[in-house]
Write a structure and sequence with these properties.
With about 170 residues, this protein is mainly beta. It has one domain. About 5% of the residues lie in helices and about 65% in strands. The strands form two sheets. The protein has a three-stranded antiparallel sheet. A three-stranded antiparallel sheet has the order 2-3-4, with no helix packed on it.
Length: about 170
């Protein structure tokens, strides 16, 4: 007699690396009358994937919602620090190029079993401060590696009990 166990597991349908560009020009620094020349813009930007939805039409498409948390500061030549903090959401859409919805039938998978899995996120954000205009430009590039996974139920055969050995653990001295 063999023993079987039903388990839910993830099956990779496809994976891909996407690049998203997010540019903003002439972002005003509203509360400052005049920025001293040679001021610098520094800080950090945290990029988080909030949502990722799979859409199947001719291609698999993902709709990704990003959250950007920007903690920036302008440092004047006199070392005065002017903090700038922003929180922003934006959405991007991209198509998988290596797999297609028609593959689901071959894999015996339904569309509602699919979900996104973020493997890794990398980003680079470049700022350009225009002290004369009191504005700055931003050019954000996000690299996002996604796997399209399906939750599937599998039947796994386990060894029969008469072919199984239980070992006692002894501590060696």
């Amino acid at each position: 007699m063999s023993y079987c166990e039903k388990i839910k597991t993830d099956q990779v349908v496809c994976d891909e690396i996407f690049f998203f560009e997010h540019e903003e020009d002439n972002i005003p620094v509203n509360f400052i009358d005049e920025l001293p020349p040679e001021s610098e813009l520094t800080g950090t930007v945290l990029v988080t994937v909030l949502e990722c939805e799979v859409v199947a039409e001719e291609f698999f498409t993902v709709e990704v919602t990003f959250l950007l948390q920007k903690e920036l500061e302008i440092v004047t030549p006199e070392q005065q620090i002017i903090p700038l903090e922003f929180v922003e959401r934006f959405q991007e859409e991209a198509a998988f190029r290596k797999c297609f919805p028609t593959d689901l039938e071959l894999l015996d998978i339904d569309l509602d079993q699919l979900y996104c899995h973020v493997v890794h996120t990398e980003a680079e954000d470049v700022f350009n401060l225009d002290t004369a205009a009191g504005t700055f430009d931003e050019n954000l590039t996000i690299e996002l590696k996604l796997k399209l996974l399906a939750k599937v139920q599998e039947v796994v055969k386990r060894c029969p009990r008469d072919q199984t050995v239980v070992l006692e653990v002894n501590q060696q001295q």
